[in-house]
């Protein structure tokens, strides 16, 4: 139904003769990747060449209904979804003034420095932005965004306020789950002066993630609440149901044209849930020699499962209820809880070296090599090679 | 003699290829490089006098375009494409309409009090007002 509505709105965009100006823009990222060792896999790549994980094709239609009002729809097909075309954005924008506009519909959430052009590989130097920071389950939101942009002296600055609801697929302790973020409120600021830029964002939202298997486990633990100390706390402390999530981001960059450096840091917390506190950052630098841009990036992602381990530590490993079946059930729950809590720990880093070659305006060819390292389990270490083409028109 | 002058002016145009930024004669604003750059990069949407600005560009690949992009916007063609891809795919803005020739830019600017464009400095006539030359 949603798709039908979206197609209808797109068709009416194309057909309506009343629209003075219709712009069609598109982008394509065709990216092939493989790990360099037989038993290695990372970011959905393995040792067989695959185009699926990061390849994206998109088409955007924008109609200017008047000086102040425009409608935009973007259809995107991703290799990892078998290139099924999906309306990722469909929104209307109204210019309240020369500095302020309001957009409503399905919009991009301005979570990161490169959020706006996340799918347009041509707009940045990597083939894909650092996964530690950008590997998040959702980037779009159904809601309203207010954009403000102005300048003073040599500074250009802006602010964005976004509110709405986001839904996405996620995983909870390894199994697929449906993620919902309600009452999302996000505020971001950015400032640019010549070669310097900085931005920050803070966001909150009520986070729920439904997964039948995980919910059944949590319910099972909760049933012991009456007679096992800590069991209720475990159930509420792991369940992801209307838990307050907070997200913080800050990025700085210096671009002197001949060279550039940049860094971005993010912090995610979902209180009282199985989702461990997550911190991620990267630093990147590159040089521009004519059409060549060699670059290097170091990224780190860490999740601290202290809260989850604390819940398990408060539990008795075994109980003696007098009923052997009950005792065995509790042992099973305890072991599952220990396993789940332990799994939430994360400590990975990666170094990426790459080269961008600008063939012509709108077309770039790139190659990136990533050395991925899991500091908790060396068996997950991998070396990934990606080559690809970014095109935009 | 005339031929020599023509040849000399051709040679000098080639050598310097100065870019003239032009507006409608009724537009009395004085514009510096930063202001012009902001108007052409969608960062400022109106002239200092408050009139909404409608920038027009010359086609990509034109020597005057490269000159303007380099001297005024401080961007190469590739950088400019990357810059616009960020705005276009967020609905924040569209690049200025690009026209095929100096003559088209001059007639567009001469016919629209909101327009601002750039042409080869040698092509300027009195249907427009030159606000700056680079």
UniProtKB/TrEMBL annotation, chain A:
First and last residue of the signal peptide: 1-20
Keyword Disulfide bond: no
Lineage top rank: taxon: Bacteria
Keyword Ligase in record: no
Molecular-function annotations in GO: isomerase activity
Keywords: Isomerase, Signal
Record-given protein name: Topoisomerase IV
Biological source species: Alteromonas hispanica
TrEMBL record, chain B:
Keywords in alphabetical order: Signal
N-terminal signal peptide: 1-17
Cited Gene3D superfamilies: Periplasmic binding protein-like II
Domain of life: Bacteria
Entry protein name: Phosphate ABC transporter substrate-binding protein
